[in-house]
Automatic annotation (TrEMBL):
Protein name listed in UniProt: Peptidase A1 domain-containing protein
Example of a GO biological process term: proteolysis
A GO cellular-component term linked to this record: fungal-type vacuole
The UniProt record lists the keyword Disulfide bond: no
Entries under PROSITE patterns matching the protein: ASP_PROTEASE (PS00141), PEPTIDASE_A1 (PS51767)
Origin species: Hermanssonia centrifuga
Annotated family: Belongs to the peptidase A1 family.
Record domain Peptidase A1: where: 84-441
Active site location: D100, D328
Superkingdom in the source lineage: Eukaryota
Alphabetized InterPro entries for the sequence: Aspartic_peptidase_A1 (IPR001461), Aspartic_peptidase_AS (IPR001969), Pepsin-like_dom (IPR034164), PEPTIDASE_A1 (IPR033121), Peptidase_aspartic_dom_sf (IPR021109)
Amino acid sequence: MAHWKLATFLAIAVAYASALEVRHVRSSRAAVSSGIELPVAPFSVPLTDKVPRSSAKKRMLRELRAGARSNVAVVAGAADDEEYLTDITIGGQDFKVVVDTGSSDTFLAGIGFQCFSLADVPVPEADCFFGTAGFDISKSETFVPFPDTNFNISFADAEFLTGSVGFDTITVGGLTVTQQEFGVVTAAAWNGDTISTGLMGLAFPTLTSVFNGTDPDADETAAHLLYNPFFFSAVQQKAVDAPFFSVALNRGTFAKEANSTLDPNLGFLAFGGIAPVAVTKTSTTVPVQGFATSSGASEIFFYAVDVEQVTFPGSTAKTTINAPSILDTGTTLNLVPTNIAKEFNARFKPPATFVEDEDTYFVDCNAIAPTFSIKIGGQEFAVDGRDQIVPSLDENNNLVCISGTQDGGPDEEGNFFVLGDVFLHNVVATFDISKNDITLTERASY
Ligand SMILES: *[C@@H]1O[C@H](CO)[C@@H](O)[C@H](O)[C@H]1NC(C)=O
Ligand SMILES: *[C@@H]1O[C@H](CO)[C@@H](O)[C@H](O)[C@H]1NC(C)=O
Ligand SMILES: *[C@@H]1O[C@H](CO)[C@@H](O)[C@H](O)[C@H]1NC(C)=O
């Protein structure tokens, strides 16, 4: 949250430094196809029973439950609907965790962890704002420690966590993986939401954050011990038939976003197929883009795609993006190249204003957002104007609005951009981890 302190999130794992000082290598494969038919993920579990659901929702859940297994989790929203949470059970203990396609580890705060400020100064445990006291290793009958290793992760918004590593049984949305490796955090600099106790990362094994040795200060690339994240283990253990997972992130209503701490139904995380929401016929399937490592080989870390064109009123020819863009559920906003952000933000009525100190475009909460679409794999995906005006609270608890599409830096080699929740509200994103393809399907308007 270094840049977007106004309760927006940038949950992108910053892997051991060398991984990101790398060049983008465009996959030689073109768009695979458009209009591909994906099976609907068979089943569903409600995230919470605390809040009554509308009859339409109840009906849908009933239909989904008609199947034999339950592999769809309803996601909830926290922190002004800017984070997406799912229920998770680890070693028989229940928590809520942030759903993050921009990192790969699953981790929980451990009982008795030490909280630090982002400036690395010890602060009271409550200042990390986790939702529970944390995971209790001694209360799990299935936990197996991974001795002489450490967990060490940093995020792009300056949050960092370190801890120990173990294996346990993990269930999300009815999908159970045994002996899943995960982090038990003993030290954290974390801006929590008072509801979640950790995070579930869904990106590639290359981005996992476990190292040989018990001293996190000694971690280096050579000591990196890669492992399979939760969904990769599920596929390997044949706990799920099809090697896809899918996310449909609903936009919150403006009123709820400005008010609520927990919104119990904000979309779906689905395993084994496409998330169960209404879609149109517009869809495309594209390869995941890799990055060049220091050895010159191309490696996949994130769900990165090539954006062919960004279109908005008055957009000029310079609206291609050369570096890859990461589809990241853990980042609230879109981060696009400087020139595109500048031109786009000038088109709000009234225009958004850039506040240097905050490194953020602010916009009038009643502004009219320009139309905006992103072309990927030959298909245009429009971003609804409602997603481009993001309500937030300033330090005096006054409602302020920030533009949904912000400056992500110059469009040059080694950089990457982000299509965050602002974009993802408009599509279902389905990630095939065996073919390394991503299918984007336009959602019916809602
Ligand atoms: C974690 O890993 C990074 C390298 O990625 C290293 O610089 C740092 O010292 C490690 N330890 C901590 C506590 O951050
Ligand atoms: C960690 O490093 C030590 C010393 O190099 C080595 O003996 C050990 O096998 C490594 N552990 C793992 C899990 O790779
Ligand atoms: C949001 O909170 C304000 C002040 O607490 C209250 O006046 C308003 O009715 C709330 N709106 C909703 C939709 O809950």
